């Protein structure tokens, strides 16, 4: 089954085009934040794969104001792509790990004329009703959409302990359900090839985020960032990674089980090779995306084809007489 975009999954670029009438560009913004898994509140060492600069390789320094960062990034992107609409992306570390009034000032500073939405990446344990009420108030006052990207990585809570996440699956479920009570979108960030996970975990990840009705998902393959615990494990052979072909197969199975309405922000991430020991099997991210699209086609499958497990499948099948 094809989506409007001609793809077999619900692509974010098409979602943005439909919602805002044209192509929309994300602008990375750094806030002066850290992470409760680094400052000692729930841990000192962070997740085993997390580099010292967090996830934001393309970010400007956090001592620049939000306005200055947006201006600098717009000056670079707008003429190059003739871009007119933007989404500030507060990406690095845990962007809601600030006092609520301070966060509010940063978010309001980003509410500029050509901004259509704001995306905040954070951890599930950095979301509360008080923060959501503030964000909903800003959304209402400035007419700008707000989405929260929650790092989950995997639904396998044994793996979450191994990667030293400092939270379990329960905190993610709680945060996702709370966000859904407000006019704010929720995106789940997942890594489908963590060394201890298998196909069952990938499929269960799709089923849980579908059952929670998250709005978007963002998939990554694991990077091995230099000078991390994961890098030590990788170098001394304590972990091995699945092949590129297995990753493609896992993503296809994930998509088959994912609710068809969920928007896919990414099928594979990107990281500069200079900072990593391993990135995407040393293959261009677009080649892996193309391989996933090719496998969807050759298997004649699509996002949601196997999303048959919600809303009482046993009684549904009984009443339809299919058992
Ligand atoms: S939660 Fe994010 S910022 Fe914090 S240690 Fe883990 S990966 Fe790094």
Automatic annotation (TrEMBL):
Organism domain of life: Bacteria
SMART domains for the chain: Elp3
Radical SAM core domain boundaries: 19-261
Family annotation (SUPFAM superfamilies): Radical SAM enzymes (SSF102114)
Entries under InterPro entries matching the protein: Aldolase_TIM, ELP3, Elp3/MiaA/NifB-like_rSAM, Radical_SAM_C, rSAM, rSAM_sf, YhcC-like
One of the record's GO molecular function terms: catalytic activity
Keywords associated with the record: 4Fe-4S, Iron, Iron-sulfur, Metal-binding, S-adenosyl-L-methionine
Cofactor: [4Fe-4S] cluster
Protein name (record): TIGR01212: radical SAM protein
Organism field: Sporomusa termitida
């Amino acid at each position: 089954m094809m989506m409007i975009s001609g793809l077999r999954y619900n692509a974010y670029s098409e979602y943005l085009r439909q919602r805002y009438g044209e192509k929309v560009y994300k602008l990375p913004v750094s806030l002066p934040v850290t992470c409760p898994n680094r400052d000692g509140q729930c841990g000192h060492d962070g997740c085993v794969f997390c580099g010292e600069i967090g996830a934001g390789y393309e970010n400007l320094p956090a001592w620049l104001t939000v306005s200055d960062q947006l201006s600098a990034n717009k000056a670079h992107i707008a003429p190059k792509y003739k871009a007119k609409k933007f989404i500030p992306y507060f990406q690095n570390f845990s962007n809601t790990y600030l006092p609520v009034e301070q966060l509010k000032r940063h978010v309001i500073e980003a509410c500029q004329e050509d901004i259509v939405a704001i995306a905040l990446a954070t951890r599930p344990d950095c979301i509360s009703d008080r923060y959501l009420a503030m964000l909903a108030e800003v959304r209402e006052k400035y007419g700008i959409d707000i989405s929260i990207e929650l790092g989950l990585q995997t639904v396998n809570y044994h793996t979450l302990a191994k990667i030293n996440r400092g939270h379990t699956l329960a905190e993610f479920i709680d945060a996702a359900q709370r966000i859904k009570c407000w006019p704010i979108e929720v995106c789940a960030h997942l890594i489908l090839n963590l060394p201890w996970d298998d196909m069952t975990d990938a499929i269960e990840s799709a089923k849980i985020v579908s059952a929670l009705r998250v709005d978007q998902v963002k998939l990554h393959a694991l990077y091995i960032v230099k000078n991390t615990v994961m890098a030590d494990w990788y170098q001394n052979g304590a972990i091995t990674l699945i092949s590129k072909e297995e990753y493609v197969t896992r993503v296809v199975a994930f998509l088959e089980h994912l609710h068809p309405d969920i928007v896919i922000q990414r099928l594979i991430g990107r990281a500069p090779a200079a900072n990593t020991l391993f990135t995407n099997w040393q293959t261009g991210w677009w080649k892996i995306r193309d391989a996933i699209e090719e496998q969807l086609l050759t298997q004649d499958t699509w996002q949601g084809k196997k999303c048959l497990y919600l809303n009482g499948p046993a009684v549904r099948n009984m009443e339809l007489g299919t058992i």
